[in-house]
């Protein structure tokens, strides 16, 4: 399944529940924020090593995948409502980043 | 281009700059949070009506697409580092949501 | 009780549970983010009018106060760990904002 | 200066600029989110050790204090608009946490 097909499925899901009036741009940005907050909660008390190892634990992996799915679903719903092509936008951003961050400079990651 | 191909491009971009050591799970969750914060800043003072109309203004649209691209790029980078299949996770979540939220109930959106 | 006294109480609470090792700056920023995410979730599907009226409903008020308390508690814990005087920092910021935003200009709120 | 006095100063600042109409509950939650996002950006690429040491660098300390001030200012502005007593709410939350998390259990921090 493509991202576009997943977005269409998400739209049909919302339409079947008459959630359109709730899915305004501001509301969806807040909902996206809430899910990113839940993703933070999964990692906040882990040491860096525990965070790296989290996906090897089936329960932790299930929770991580669930929250990342929620983030993705609100992001594609917002893109749908705003008529944004996320793949094209992502590609255009990497194009710009290739100019902003020439290869091989390592630590300038701190500034990006 | 598919989401998987965009993710591979993002990974090659990071590898060419030796950013792997910075791209730990916790760091990427924080970077994702920062970009979602910037997306909030674009919408925070707009009325609901202005927010709906924002994509029709070329400058506003460019800023929105830029921040949504940043959110997507950190999300797919995190998925790559954690070996998560985002499309599969998103589909599995809609499957669960179809059980949790039967069609036709409208306002229970408030609880989801 | 002053903010400083509340911060001291929060520190004693953490010390009594040996939570010091978890309360690193990055972890506390992530925990703060998680609580702000929960605050977003309380308001995300409300209309502007419902959001204004929320504090008049006892249950909604209790949830809002609970999440705002969590945000405050992690913020003052972070300030304690980083040795930041929040009241002084807030005052210094309003001093700077008075220069950046001269009175009477209204809509420049959009840029701040 | 007390937190209440800082809040009164922040209210006067907003009133002098006629920002009341922008300072709705939802808008302020989004603005708070934006500032927490900026705080994340200051720490996201730092190692845990660099994050601990950040306050000893004058430039880094100034940026951290500036972002923490912004978080505090939007939090107290939201509390003012919603008529929430933050100090009382924080105390009530520690009261509840003392029941939820008996002293001496250490790692249950992961669940809180």
TrEMBL record, chains A, B, C, D:
This is NTP pyrophosphatase, house-cleaning of non-canonical NTPs. It comes from Actinokineospora terrae. It holds the Pfam family MazG-like. PANTHER family: DCTP PYROPHOSPHATASE 1 (PTHR46523:SF1). CDD domains: NTP-PPase_RS21-C6_like. GO terms for molecular function: dCTP diphosphatase activity. One of its GO terms (biological process) is dCTP catabolic process. InterPro entries: dCTP_Pyrophosphatase (IPR052555), DCTPP (IPR025984). One of its GO terms (cellular component) is cytosol.
